[in-house]
Amino acid sequence: MRFGIIAGVCAALLACPATAQTTLASASAVFVEHVTDAPGGIAARTIAPAQMLRRGDRVVLMVEWQAQNPVADITVASAVPRKLAFLDSSEESLEVSPDNGRSWGKLGELQIADAYGTRLVSPEDVTQLRWRIPRHEIAQGRKRIVYSAVVR
User: Which pLDDT score is estimated for 19?
Assistant: First the structure.
């Protein structure tokens, strides 16, 4: 997998519904996480801009936004590309959807039905992410949301 998946990840990364009076600027980036052994047996984690992704790579996706003239709360949303399995988010306000946005909830609370009955949604089930950003937080300026995933 080369540039195509990276371009697809960037394209699916951000959708920001906001009110008509709020001006929202956003940017996104995809990084690959590398783990190397450091002296003393401690693993060192670094990230580098993604140029090529392979199955099993752990990626870090950053969504940065800045809103001007906030008149209401906003929602920052991101589709999780099919080639990625969601792992975690830097924001507690995260809500997930396992069904392309038809239902939303928190991991550990949201349930889905499968062939074996009803169960909690797992991170691998997640197809969409969204973060609700309160107006008072928007007024503070730029914000960066980070989430991680693994290449399937």
Answer: 42
Question: 63 to each of 55, 109, 112, 135, how far by Cα in Å?
Answer: 23, 25, 28, 18
- DSSP track, the chain: --HHHHHHHHHHS-B----TT-EEEEEEEEEEEEEEE-GGGPEEEEEEE-S---TT-EEEEEEEEEEES--S-EEEEEE--TTEEEEEES-TTEEEESSTTSS-B-TTT-EEEETTEEEEPPGGG--EEEEEE-HHHHTT--EEEEEEEEE-
pTM of the model: 0.74
Beta bridge partners of 89: 147
